[in-house]
Each structure stands twice: as structure tokens, then as C-alpha cells.
Amino acid sequence: QVQLVESGGGLVQAGRSLRLSCATSGPTYTMAWFRQGPGKDREFVVGISRYGGTTITADSVKGRFTISRDNAKNTMYLELNSLTPEDTAVYYCAARQLVSVQREAAQYDYWGQGTQVTVSA
């Protein structure tokens, strides 16, 4: 019954920005964004607590990416700024039932289908 649907990906030039969205259903969960580049493992990007009071950001994107959520709209967002080709990946929305933000993909219970972000030099 829980569904997560990402949107907003696309092809963009280096230095530009994108905003990804994740439409949610069900209870208010701890949520996060992960990404998986070509030939790479899935990695943690940013996580956010149920009501937005706590965020955790991976060092690789700190200062460039910002997570937020609007629970009234049942939507989570990821603002990607100053994009580089190294940011090219499929970006996934994830949610977990427990309240703590975690960096491990295995700790999340629900996943979206992913949205492709491609950054050209």
C-alpha cells in the first residue's frame, strides 16, 4: 500500500540545477535519497526525519544538495545545485518505519522506481 514515486530527473549541463520530487503515500516516515551511478553501488545521498527536524548529508554532496519535505503535500524534495558529471546516476526515494535516519540502504523498507539524472560536461 505504501508507494513512492520520483520525478524531476533529466539531462542537464554541468553547473546547472535540478529539483527532484518524491510523492508519498501512507504514514509519515523517515525518508532519504540514494543514488546509483553506472557500474557503482547504491549510495546514500541525504536523509530527513519524519518532521524535518534532522537531516544527514553525504560528504560528496554537502553544500550542493538540500533535502526538504512538505508533509501537507505528502512530498519530499531534493534540490541539486552545481551539478557535475559525477552526479550522473539513478536517484531513488526511500522510506523506513523506524524514526532514525540511516545511511545504509538495507535499513529502508520502501523504495521508488528511480529517476535518471544525467549531467553533461
Could you give a quick summary of the protein structure above?
The protein is 0% helix and 49% strand.
What does the model show?
It is a single chain. The chain has 121 residues and is mainly beta. The protein has strands at 4-7, 10-13, 18-24, 30-36, 43-48, 55-57, 65-70, 75-80, 89-96, 110-111, 115-120. The radius of gyration is 13 Å and the shape is globular.
Question: Regions with pLDDT < 50 over 5+ consecutive residues?
Answer: none
Major sheet characteristics: 7 strands, mixed
Approximately what portion of the residues adopt beta-strand conformation?
Answer: over 45%
Distance between the termini: 40 Å
Helix % is under 10%
- The number of strands is 11
Write the element-wise H/E pattern from the N-terminal end onward.
Answer: EEEEEEEEEEE
Shape: globular
Helix segment count? 0
SS-based structural class?
mainly beta
Integer average pLDDT: 97
Specify Rg, calculated over alpha carbons.
Answer: 13 Å
